[in-house]
Every structure is written in structure tokens, then in C-alpha cells.
Design a protein that fits this description.
Layout lengths: L3 E6 L12 H14 L5 E4 L1 H6 L1 H9 L3 E4 L12 H19 L5 E2 L13 H8 L3 E2 L20 E2 L5 E2 L5 E3 L2 E3 L4 H6 L2 H10 L7 E4 L18 H8 L5 H8 L2 H5 L4 H6 L17
Parallel strand pairs: 1-2, 1-10, 2-3, 4-5, 5-7
Antiparallel strand pairs: 6-7, 8-9
């Protein structure tokens, strides 16, 4: 059973008066992956790549796939197609020149590919992307796409979509293999969901450098309540250990970046999703 390890590499500090912490944490993640012989897909912000190009080159030189995470983490529903196209074209070319590898994958900020931002499909195709991993196929307080397939599918233009893995707890569906869900859910429950996953291509784990950063000082994140900010800040100390328990020897052995899995034919035969009708 394959499990793709993915990282959303983004800046977390609220302003420049706070120290820049993600480079050191990202290097810790690289060391963790090297120790398990795992190659990841790392979705990088274009703005971050410009300012920390040495780190991005380190990631690529270590054999990890570089994907694109937008230029400045603007949610798609707050962007325009033309602005997104211009920023993405420039950033994609810059990162390809920097790393010496083509960029095929895109992940929208905060899973913001929803019914309100379907315009992004055509822009991705025009810019030469092959796949997206940007849909959370359920209701969510931030961004969600209820009615979208829970398993990998094709958009009508041929772009592959690899949606966030979901688990159901009562009436709730949650992306249990990443972010605060991964940090707070008990390990026995996470492993239970992994073992029950009927479509092995659907398994991928996502994290951000701040998910591991237990030394970061608390601050209230702009636009969120104190409670939400506390939840995002707490429970980071054991993230490496929890991921290590999820990534069993079998999962590590079969782990590969998204583009390698696509090239190996693991996403062939997908159904086309028409947002006007739901696929069971």
C-alpha cells in the first residue's frame, strides 16, 4: 500500500519581526525522510522560492519532487484567473530553472479549489501542469468541495486530481492524514483509517514545517480566534513520532512522489468528474 509524503512549504510567521523558522524545520524533515529512504512531494510557494532559493535547491537535489503551491498563498477564491496565471507562469519557470526539474503538480492554498474556483483547471492546463492535489471533498470551515469524488479523478481537460484522504467519524468527514487532524487524532484511529482505505492511490500525508515546530512562540493568527490559534499552536512536539508510527516499513517501502506514481501508471483509468453531477 503506497503512502505519498507531501509537504506544503510556506512561511508561517505573522511578520518579519519574528524569526524565520521554516528553513531549519524543513531540513529536519529532510533528515527524517532520508533516514527512512522516502522521497516526498514538496509544494513550494513561489515567493518563498525567490527568497530562499538555496533551500529549494537542497530539496530538489535530495531527490524530492518540487510542486507549486501558488505564489503567495492567496486562496483561489480571493484571486483572479489572470493574476494567478501571471504569477504562476513566472514562479513555475523560476523554480524549474532553479531546480533543473519540470514542475507538474499544483496544490491550492488551504484546499481552495472549490466550486467557486473551477477556472483554475484551464489555467493549470495552459501552464503545463499534469495534476493537482487541491480538493477537500467535504464540507469544511475554511474550504471544501462537497460532492467532489473522494478518490482520484480526472477533470474534463485531463488534469488528474488527487483529493485529500478523508475519514468519517460520525457525521464528520475530515482529512485525517495532515495538519491539526494528524496531530490531534490518536494513532490507533489514524492507522485504523489507513488500513480501511479501499483505494490505495488515495493515501497521502500532508504537513507544514510549523506542524513540527514546538519551539515557536504563541501568537494569535490574524483572522482567527484565540481558540483556533491555540489549537494550531499546541500539540506539535510529537509530530515526527506520530508520522513515524503511521509510516510503517511497508508504507515507506512503497512510498513515492506523486509524479513518479503517475508515471508508473498508478493513476490510470480514472473517471472524469463533471462538477454539475456527482460521482458516487
Amino acid at each position: 500500500m503506497p503512502l505519498t509524503f507531501t509537504v506544503d512549504l510556506e512561511e508561517h510567521r505573522p511578520n518579519e519581526t519574528y524569526s524565520k523558522r521554516f528553513p531549519a524545520i524543513m531540513r529536519d524533515i529532510l533528515t527524517f525522510l532520508e533516514g527512512r529512504n522516502v522521497k516526498a512531494t514538496v509544494f513550494v510557494l513561489g515567493k518563498l522560492a525567490e527568497n530562499d532559493s538555496g533551500l529549494i535547491k537542497e530539496i530538489a537535489d535530495a531527490g524530492h519532487e518540487i510542486g507549486f503551491h501558488s505564489y503567495a498563498h492567496v486562496h483561489l477564491n480571493k484571486d483572479t484567473a489572470e493574476n494567478f496565471k501571471q504569477e504562476s507562469h513566472r514562479s513555475k519557470a523560476f523554480m524549474e530553472d532553479l531546480t533543473g526539474q519540470a514542475i507538474y503538480g499544483f496544490r491550492a492554498p488551504a484546499f481552495s479549489l472549490t466550486r467557486q474556483s473551477l477556472w483554475v483547471q484551464d489555467v493549470l492546463q495552459e501552464l503545463g501542469f499534469s495534476y493537482s492535489s487541491s480538493v477537500l471533498p467535504a464540507n469544511n470551515p475554511i474550504n471544501g468541495f462537497p460532492g467532489a469524488p473522494a478518490k482520484p479523478f480526472l477533470w474534463s481537460n485531463g488534469i488528474i486530481e488527487i483529493p485529500a484522504p478523508l475519514a468519517k467519524i460520525g457525521p464528520l468527514s475530515m482529512p485525517y492524514l495532515g495538519g491539526i487532524y494528524l496531530r490531534y487524532l490518536p494513532i490507533f484511529l489514524i492507522n485504523h483509517f489507513v488500513e480501511r482505505e479501499p483505494d490505495q492511490r488515495s493515501l497521502w500525508l500532508y504537513c507544514h514545517p510549523h506542524d513540527f515546530d514546538h519551539g515557536e512562540s504563541y501568537y494569535t493568527i490574524e483572522g482567527t480566534s484565540m481558540l483556533t490559534s491555540l489549537l494550531l499552536w499546541f500539540n506539535r512536539k510529537n509530530t515526527f513520532n506520530k508520522i513515524d508510527q503511521v509510516m510503517s516499513e511497508k508504507l515507506c517501502r512503497n512510498s513515492m512522489p506523486f509524479i513518479e506514481a503517475i508515471n508508473a501508471g498508478k493513476y490510470e483509468g480514472l473517471e472524469v468528474f463533471n462538477p454539475g453531477c456527482e460521482i458516487p
